[in-house]
Design a protein that fits this description.
With 264 residues, the protein is α/β, with parallel strands linked by helices. The chain is built from 12 helices and 10 strands. It has a single domain (3-201, 219-224), classed as TIM Barrel (Alpha-Beta Barrel). Helix 9 packs parallel to helix 11, helix 9 (202-214) packs antiparallel against helix 12 (249-263) and helix 11 (232-245) runs antiparallel to helix 12 (249-263).
């Protein structure tokens, strides 16, 4: 691996081989998402506890101080919205020159396997991987499922993750699912967990994060499970303990409860 590529990956993936990436890119298709209406206000208390940010160029420039930033994974795909016809119809929205100008550590885009726009999104990935390899910038592919949440099973996610790796993604972000080991085993590049199933308690979040880590994920890329929580700093500290300290769900819950009590 070229020095520049390895150096950028090392900014995101910590010496223990794990990472906690904070995504705040939801507005690129959802608009002012709940609890993310003011990105700077949301980020400031929790940014010290993440290892990198997944963010668009607009919010990066407007809401993150360059003197106090984390490594950046730049969202470079888009072109659709929740009120449009099909979330899968994305294109590349940001050039490689812009990524270089912003001094990012990685670039990320979504792919939509099994949709009418499968080929388009995969060719987007191939083009981005070419550019990334040329300039030493790793690509993170996100196995998006649009509104079709029933696709979050191991067979589908293993297929999508493997295709992403085959086309040149250096890292794959995919959803946690039952039998998550099947997804990781079939993917020859590091796998990072996105959200899991809809859950009602913090402990359930800690449980699926722990399961994913035990089954080969190198970390998480969780947003709403953290910053939509009533106590986001407590939540990110609990998740961080699983990622970097091998804490159990019960231990993470104890950290959450302790931080919550301090904040109350």
């Amino acid at each position: 691996m070229d020095w520049g590529m390895a150096n950028r990956l090392s900014r995101i993936i910590q010496p223990d081989g794990h990472t906690l990436i904070m995504p705040v890119d939801h507005g690129y298709f959802q608009g002012p998402t709940r609890k993310l209406e003011q990105p700077r206000k949301t980020l400031e208390p929790i940014m010290p506890y993440c290892d990198a940010l997944f963010i668009t160029r607009g919010v990066l420039r407007s809401s993150v101080d360059p003197e106090n930033a984390k490594p950046i994974v730049l969202r470079v795909s888009g072109g659709t919205s929740v009120v449009g016809k099909d979330l899968a119809n994305e294109g590349l929205t940001t050039s490689i020159e812009e990524a270089i100008r912003l001094n990012v550590s990685a670039i990320g885009l979504s792919i939509f396997i099994g949709t009418d726009y499968e080929k388009d999104s995969l060719l987007n990935l191939a083009k981005l991987a070419d550019d990334g390899e040329k300039y030493g910038i790793p690509v993170m592919a996100v196995t998006a499922v649009g509104k079709e949440l029933e696709k979050r099973d191991a067979r589908y996610l293993a297929l999508a993750s493997r295709i992403a790796a085959e086309l040149g993604a250096r890292v794959v972000k995919t959803y946690w699912c039952e039998n998550f080991a099947k997804v990781v085993t079939g993917c020859p590049v590091p796998v990072i967990m996105a959200g899991g199933p809809k859950v009602d308690t913090e402990l359930q979040v800690f449980e699926f994060v722990y399961d994913g880590m035990q089954n080969g994920a190198i970390g998480v890329n969780l947003g709403r499970n953290i910053w939509q929580n009533p106590f986001p700093t407590a939540m990110i500290k609990g998740i961080r303990s699983i990622i970097h300290e091998n804490a159990t769900p019960k231990q993470a819950q104890e950290i959450y409860d302790g931080e919550k009590a301090k904040a109350s």
